[in-house]
Amino acid sequence: MSQVDNKSKNVGLSVSLERTDSGSYRLVVDDVESMTGVGASLWKSVGLYTTSPEYSKDELVETGLSDDQLKEIGFSIMIRLLALNGLIK
Questions:
Q1: 8-state DSSP, 79
Q2: Fewer CB within 10 Å, N or C, the chain?
Q3: Cα three-residue angle 71-82-18, rounded to 5 degrees
Q4: Among residues of the chain, what percentage have pLDDT more than 90?
Q5: Environment class of residue 11 by beta-carbon count within 10 Å: exposed (0-12), middle (13-18) or buried (19+)?
């Protein structure tokens, strides 16, 4: 098992689905940090990282997002996690 430094254990991302006033939805990604340190279970938001374009319920549930859209979301999340943990600038 590899060791992870304390910074890595204290920062992360919160991903949520937000309903907009128009009735569509968007993905919201916030930077979060641990409130309790190692083995953290309590997190607080420290800032908005990004929001996605708005999607209709049909786009999310019935037809689903395209492979390219899903890849873009996953890529964005991985890049941000690497940056938060000081692995890239």
A1: H
A2: N
A3: 55
A4: 61
A5: buried
Which residues are within 8 A (CB) of 57 and not within 5 positions of it... i.e. 6 or more apart?
Answer: 23, 24, 25
Instruction: Provide the residue type at 15 as one letter.
Output: V
Domain locations in the chain as residue ranges = 6-84
Structure confidence at residue 1 (pLDDT):
36
**pLDDT < 50 regions, the chain:** 1-4
If residue 25 lies in a helix (H) or strand (E), which one and from where to where?
A: strand 25-34
Distance (Å, rounded) from C-alpha 15 to C-alpha 70? 14
Counting every residue, how long is the chain?
Answer: 89
Rg (CA), the chain: 15
pTM over cut 0.90: no
